[in-house]
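Researcher: Please predict.
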Amino acid sequence: MKYCVIGLGIFGKHLCSHLASLGAEVLAIDPREENVAAVKDIVDASVELDFSDPVPFAQFPIREMDAVVIAIGDNFEASMMLTLRMQELGAKKIICRVLSPMHERLLKLLKVDRLVVPEEFAARGLAHSMMISGVIDGYDLGDGHVIIEAKVPAGLAGKTLEQVALTFRKYSILLVTVKRRISHPLLSRVLPMDEMTLDDEDDRATLGVPKLDVEFKSDDILVLFGAEKNLPRFLDAVAALNNTGAEA
């Protein structure tokens, strides 16, 4: 897969990093030397180019890209101009970062394939983490459904997914995966097993698709999918589970 990311602010740089980590070929473009330098070691090509003149963009293989992402976050005129230019150059798919309601309306008129409002997603995630006890982050999927990351409620610790499957089913909640704290590979060579677990929240492994015999640990993080209205009730219910897996 090949992608072109235009605009290397915080959003654009993180997007480049994630795409590259997933094995994509990434062309990154920005007018600021420091932004280009920040991604040069993680993308296939990084180019410093002024956004005020769209003509030089013809030198890039835009038609070969699976998508062009216009991630500009501070220049309405440049974003619109480059959107039109990418259409002229035959981009298969255009994804634009939205800068304002007016910008969004204009991009819709241009029939841009996808519009992204990263600040809105961040705000929704923060709202979920503030309003639902135990939730670390949330991702709004639309139509009243969300994916959340939540600390394991006390009632789940030590139980298997099979033991509590009925409660998941009752609230129509899907366990997507479990993020589990892992031991540091280097420390494991020199420290006893009971001393080698780190406290850094990033030292976690994703367990993949959970099996029925997976046993929840007290410091696990659950990735859950379901209706936004059901998730708080589900978390309250599993927090109250007794030793047999039945609700108290």
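Model: Confidence is low (pLDDT under 50) at residues 187-201.
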